[in-house]
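#onboarding

Welcome to the new folks! Below is a worked example of what a typical request in this channel looks like: someone posts a single protein sequence, and someone else replies with the predicted structure as tokens. Don't worry about understanding the tokens yet, we'll cover that in week two.

Example request:
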Amino acid sequence: MLLFRRKKDLIAHLAALKNTSTSVGLVPTMGALHEGHLAIVKKAISETKVVVVTIFVNPTQFDNQDDLNKYPDTLDSDLEALKTISEELIVFAPAVTELYSNNISSKEYDFDGLDTTMEGKFRSNHFLGVATVVEKLFSIVKPNKAYFGEKDFQQLLIIKKLIEITNMPIEIIGCPIVREPHGLAMSSRNERLPKDLRVKASFIYETLLAAKEIFGMKSATSVMDWVKNKFDKQPEFDLEYINITDQDTLNPVKRKQKNTKYRAFIAVYVNGVRLIDNIALN
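Example response:
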């Protein structure tokens, strides 16, 4: 496994590797790797010849400095986890100044409203920060394919929109949500939950599964009201939002239409830890 800290060294190494038949896959992460990340890396390995995993805690996507300060720095254990998959991986773990120099700020993008709802509504400028760093990584690695988890489904759509805006020749691959045995979507944040609440948090996914069943019979508004009522009866959970939207546009559902895919999105605080999840409804 090769670890690069400086972008110029990574660029030089990739230039020496690339030829017309060499496909490059990119898996951007912020570290604190878990089985969900590793599943994405495995998919990249299965589809591309050279795989670059980036480990970088991006400051511009945090609207809360305390969250940024609390984000775990686990590079050594992350590298060990990656080695269990393949010794052929390339890891890029730059310092903040390596990507941003002395200008730690986000670019402006027009995402046609994809960034103003749900996560964008509750996390100011979050997606501008995400897009800024992802565009930087794309420019450095120049991958053929880039892989992102569907747990952050809104982010996945925004990255696809970024490709449309920048006209970069990169295929964006969405990877299924990986769940803990009791159903909770895997997340680095899960580690901050006490063990008993981590198990109880399976209630989030159980509620989404039930909502999917109800969605076949009732309106989107009725389903969202039902979900809110369920969480009102759970004092350990603080529901931030439940949204049912068109899967492609994230527009709220007013009336269900044929040949349209819908998805439910949820954000919940459990013991002060913010968890998100989503599920396809049809």
